[in-house]
Design brief:
Helix content: 25-40%
Bound molecules: nicotinamide-adenine-dinucleotide
Largest sheet: 7 strands, parallel
Distance between the termini: 81 Å
Number of strands: 20
Oligomer: single chain
Number of helices: 17
Strand order of the largest sheet: 11-14-15-10-9-16-17
Radius of gyration: 24 Å
Shape: globular
Length: 496
């Protein structure tokens, strides 16, 4: 691609999303300590995904096709549903134990196979799901007792669940959904993203070893060895699958909705972080860097844009630089747009070569001398910019200025695109926080901390990596993977 062709793409991008800004995008020129001035962009590509990663082959629970996986899962779910609760608790404890024992290698494999994220950050995410995914203890019965007798409501299994998992949290989603689904008395067949197939199959193998080692049935957790979009479709439509749970972007959500099954759909997000004039800016900067940079911004809940009230925007930007972010000036911004945006048939989209890559990889392409310790690039842009409008899934964080908190909240609502996923606000004005909470209407809203607090990392509560905004379950748990059953007893069973 020559220079003129690239410029044409960028112009088309900006024209499609909105008007090309008349004035240069706000200049943020002070480089953070330790970084030299940028040279011209280089032509070399970002490192490619390593598909030949040295990942052990998963065998147990790993099937050549959907048909055989669902058949095996059917037998396993009957054993699970018939089991008393105490053994099931042991199986789930064993799943947590094996995931914990292998977590370091699983994180490494996930990075090597997908080419996304950072192993150290994946360690935090995986440890979170191992420790804070709710188990069978959440299946509490409800009783109604009165003159007409007793009614008992309990939670029963669905049977076989088909779970489609993303490339961005491959092991986290298998551990998180696996624990929740087995806890509910089900068996689950996973169809992983093709780019995470080997790591997912190895994890499924380990989970089978753990469950059977604790006396449980084989194949409570299973997967298709070479998953594709076609095998995902086949799983979603298979007559033996009672519940479809999908975790991914808009394509898979749409496909699941057409499956004719009960669907729990966890879709995309574009989480804004609003910082108003009353915020503690040190807290805000620290939270933004952690939340937007963890695993190179591929988490669906991660801050995808900052909207700062203009009066504190410079002060916030200075703190982001002090926290180690690379501030992108005008010249670098143009080069960055050319690097990380592409014009495809459906419009502009992030360049896949840079999704989930380290900030240092991107910075070096801009001619900046930066190591892999660099966490984040910050670009001062306007609302219409593609970095704001698109779910970029890379450590490039746009910052937009708003005249006041009211407009900042309105802008946050617009750029979240109605996904209803996640939002963050830093403020010490309770009226502003209240207005944002009501307006943004997301499954997760975090006040004065980063998105991770809403996942239970540095915040109270359980965790989930299947956050079902389109279908309304929010952070899914074992309860969502069970169906309600009622038994009404007319006489003799009351004790008062
Ligand atoms: P993706 O949509 O490309 O793939 C997700 C899964 O769906 C993969 O297994 C893929 O093979 C499958 N798939 C994709 N299109 C399909 C189709 N048309 N029919 C059948 N199956 C299909 O997403 P990804 O790149 O793996 O993950 C990133 C996306 O997922 C982001 O949009 C992110 O926000 C979203 N995500 C959401 C959550 C959540 O909890 N809401 C969690 C993780 C990721």
């Amino acid at each position: 691609m020559d220079e003129a062709h690239i410029q044409a793409i960028v112009d088309a991008v900006l024209a499609r999303i909105g008007e090309v800004p008349e004035t240069p995008l706000a200049a943020v020129t002070k480089p953070p300590p330790g970084y030299t001035a940028p040279a011209a962009p280089t032509a070399s590509a970002a490192p490619a995904r390593r598909r030949d990663a040295d990942i052990p082959r998963g065998r147990r629970g790993v099937f050549p096709d959907v048909e055989s996986a669902v058949r095996a899962a059917r037998a396993a779910t009957e054993a699970n549903a018939a089991s008393p609760l105490e053994p099931r608790k042991r199986w789930v404890a064993a799943m947590r134990g094996t995931a914990r024992a292998h977590v370091t290698e699983l994180c490494r494999f996930a990075v090597e196979e997908t080419g996304y994220g950072r192993a150290d950050d994946k360690l935090k995410k995986n440890t979170l799901v191992i420790d804070k995914t709710p188990g069978p203890e959440w299946l509490e019965p409800i009783a109604f007792s009165g003159d007409d007798g007793l009614t008992l409501v309990e939670r029963a299994s669905y049977g076989v669940i088909g779970s489609i998992t993303p490339t961005t949290n491959p092991t986290e989603t298998v551990i998180n959904n696996g624990i929740g689904m087995v806890s509910g008395g089900n068996a689950v067949v996973f169809n992983a993203h093709p780019y995470a197939a080997r790591t997912s199959a190895y994890l499924v193998h380990l989970l089978n070893e753990a469950i059977t080692g604790a006396g449980g049935p084989e194949n409570l957790v299973s997967c298709v060895e070479r998953p594709t979009i076609e095998s995902a479709e086949a799983l979603m439509r298979h007559a033996g699958v009672r519940l479809v749970v999908v975790t991914g972007g808009p394509g898979v959500v749409k496909a699941a909705m057409g499956s004719g099954k009960k669907v729990i759909a966890a879709g995309p997000g574009n989480p804004p972080a609003v910082v108003d004039e009353t915020a503690d800016l040190d807290v805000a900067a620290e939270g933004i860097v952690l939340g937007a940079s963890i695993d190179n911004n591929i988490i669906c809940t991660a801050e995808k844009e900052v909207i700062a009230v203009a009066s504190i925007a410079d002060a916030l930007t200075e703190r982001l630089a002090r926290a180690g972010c690379l501030l992108v000036d005008d010249r670098k911004l143009r080069a960055l747009e050319k690097l990380v945006l592409e014009q495809g048939s459906g419009g502009v989209h992030p360049n896949k070569d840079f999704i989930g890559k380290n900030a240092g990889v991107i910075a070096r392409q801009l001619g900046v001398t930066a190591g892999d310790e660099l966490r984040l690039l910050v670009a001062d842009v306007d609302e219409k910019h593609p970095f704001v409008q698109l779910e970029m899934l890379m450590p490039v964080l746009p910052l937009v200025r708003a005249p006041d908190a009211t407009e900042a909240i309105a802008m946050a609502k617009r750029v979240e695109h109605g996904f209803g996923h996640t939002a963050v606000m830093y403020s010490r004005n309770i009226a502003h926080l209240h207005a944002m909470a009501r307006t943004i209407n997301t499954s997760i809203f975090v006040k004065n901390a980063c998105n991770l607090a809403g996942l239970g990392y540095g915040g109270e509560g359980y965790t989930s990596f299947t956050i079902a905004s389109p279908t309304g379950e929010g952070l899914t748990t074992v309860r969502n993977f069970t169906r309600e059953r009622r038994c009404t007893l007319k006489e003799y069973f009351r004790i008062v």
